[in-house]
């Protein structure tokens, strides 16, 4: 249980960190792809096989049965845990040296 809540907190923190990003394009990109020419050298023919399939008949119904079911008591108690605390400052609001490089 503790591991699950820690993982959920980490995923939430990563999501908040991505929302706070400030992205600036610093260079234009370009892509040159090679050019190809393709020509047909012969005619093609495709014949797909045929199948006759007889599927089984399936009937799904319900019926009442009496079975023994274990009963478990559920209780909670307070416990002090160490959990991550995450503060996110969006990039445009930062006041450190990294944000000044814009």
Describe this structure in words.
With 102 residues, this protein is mainly alpha-helical. It has a domain at 1-18 and 82-102. The protein is 18% helix and 0% strand. It has 1 helix and no strands. It has one helix spanning 2-19. This is Lipoprotein.
**How many β-strands, per DSSP?**
0
Task: State the end-to-end CA separation.
Answer: 43 Å
Radius of gyration: 31 Å
| Uncertain ranges | none
Please state roughly what percent of the residues sit in beta strands, choosing from under 5%, 5-15%, 15-25%, 25-35%, 35-45% or over 45%.
under 5%
The major beta sheet can be summarized as: none
Shape: flat
Structural class given helices, strands, pairing?
mainly alpha
Count the DSSP helices.
1
Helix content: 10-25%
Give a concise summary.
The chain has one helix at residues 2-19. With 102 residues, it is mainly α.
Could you name the key traits of this structure?
1 helix, 102 residues
Chart the SSEs and their pairings.
Layout (H helix, E strand, L loop, with lengths): L1 H18 L83
């Amino acid at each position: 249980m503790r591991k699950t809540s820690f993982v959920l907190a980490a995923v939430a923190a990563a999501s908040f960190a991505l929302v706070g990003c400030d992205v600036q394009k610093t260079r234009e990109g370009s892509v040159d792809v090679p050019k190809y020419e393709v020509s047909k050298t012969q005619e093609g023919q495709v014949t797909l096989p045929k199948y006759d399939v007889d599927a089984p008949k399936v009937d799904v119904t319900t019926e009442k049965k009496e079975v023994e079911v274990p009963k478990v008591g559920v209780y909670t108690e307070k416990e002090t845990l160490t959990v991550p605390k995450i503060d996110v400052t969006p990039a445009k609001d930062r006041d450190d040296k990294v944000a000044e490089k814009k």
